[in-house]
Design a protein that fits this description.
It is built from four helices and no strands. The protein has about 110 residues and is mostly helical.
Length: about 110
């Protein structure tokens, strides 16, 4: 169950990270509200997952999902550059996430 919570927390991190772009420095009300709620929900789920997972693993996976997901959404939906080098490093990041899970002992 902790891994499911952690995965959802990571996906919420993608959402709030992308949401930051739409808040315009927290000057737009509804994007700001949704971004803050997404952040809070993501942190709560991360904290729940960290009760039974090593914190280094939980945090690393959470950050990795968020970073890779935000980069992928940026490239596919927000017009950010999608060079072969960027894609290569996202694949490396995803491999590190899998490595952390496999070696966590849970």
């Amino acid at each position: 169950m902790a891994w499911i919570l952690l995965t959802i927390a990571g996906l919420l991190e993608v959402g709030w990270a992308i949401g930051l772009k739409f808040t315009e420095g927290f000057t737009r009300l509804w994007p700001s509200v949704f971004t803050v709620l997404g952040f809070a929900a993501s942190m709560i789920l991360l904290a729940q997952a960290a009760k039974s997972l090593p914190i280094g693993t939980a945090y690393g996976v959470w950050v990795g999902i968020g970073a890779a997901g935000a980069a992928i959404v940026g490239m596919t939906s927000l017009g950010e550059p999608a060079s072969a080098v960027r894609i290569f490093f996202i694949v490396l990041l995803l491999a590190a996430i899998v490595g952390l899970k496999v070696t966590s002992g849970h």
